[in-house]
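wait is this the right file?? whatever heres the structure
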C-alpha cells in the first residue's frame, strides 16, 4: 500500500454540478519528491466566482486547461507506475477532495484506482493526540497557498512529522 496525499481546488461545492479546477498528489515518503499535478477544463457552465478565486485562476484560464478524461488517464497511469500495491487516498479535507477525485475517476474512466475508502488527516491527528479539539496544521512546513501540490506536500509533511513524533506506522 502507498499513501497518496491529495489536494484539490474546485469552482463550487460539489462534483458534477461544478468543476474540479486542479489537483495535486504527493507520495507520502521521505523527500516528498514524487508528485502529480493536473489542471482540468470545466465540465459545467456553473461556477461560483469566490470559489474559483481561491484557486488563483480565472474562468478564462480554466477553459484552456486539459480535457478531464486525459488528466484522469494521466493520473491513473501515474498511480499505477508510482504506487506499490493499492494507492491509499489521504487528504486534509477528504470529504471534499475525495468526492471530486472519486466522481471524476468514475465519471471519466469508469473506475477509481483508490477503491472506495480514504483517510482524513485531521481526524487521524485528533486520534493520535487523543484530543478532538487539536489541529495538525502547525506541523506543515510548506506554506498552504492553494496550489494543490504545495498544499498536498504540506499535509504530507505533517503526516510524516506525526509518524516520527508519535510512532505512527506508515507504509514503507
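ok assuming it is, sequence goes like this
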Amino acid at each position: 500500500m502507498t499513501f497518496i496525499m491529495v489536494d484539490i481546488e474546485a469552482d463550487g461545492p460539489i462534483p458534477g454540478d461544478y468543476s474540479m479546477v486542479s489537483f495535486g498528489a504527493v507520495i507520502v515518503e521521505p523527500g516528498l519528491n514524487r508528485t502529480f499535478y493536473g489542471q482540468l477544463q470545466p465540465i459545467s457552465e456553473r461556477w461560483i466566482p469566490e470559489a474559483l478565486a481561491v484557486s488563483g485562476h480565472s474562468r478564462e484560464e480554466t477553459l484552456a486547461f486539459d480535457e478531464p478524461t486525459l488528466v484522469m488517464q494521466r493520473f491513473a497511469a501515474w498511480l499505477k507506475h508510482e504506487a506499490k500495491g493499492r494507492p491509499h487516498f489521504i487528504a486534509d479535507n477528504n470529504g471534499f477532495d475525495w468526492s471530486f477525485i472519486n466522481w471524476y475517476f468514475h465519471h471519466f474512466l469508469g473506475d477509481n484506482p483508490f477503491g472506495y475508502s480514504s483517510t482524513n488527516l485531521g481526524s487521524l491527528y485528533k486520534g493520535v493526540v487523543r484530543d478532538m479539539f487539536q489541529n495538525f496544521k502547525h506541523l506543515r512546513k510548506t506554506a498552504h497557498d492553494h496550489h494543490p501540490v504545495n498544499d498536498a506536500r504540506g499535509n504530507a509533511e505533517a503526516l510524516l512529522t506525526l509518524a516520527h513524533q508519535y510512532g505512527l506506522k506508515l507504509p514503507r
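The helical segments are 49-55, 59-63, 68-82, 94-109, 121-129, 148-166. so i think its the right one actually
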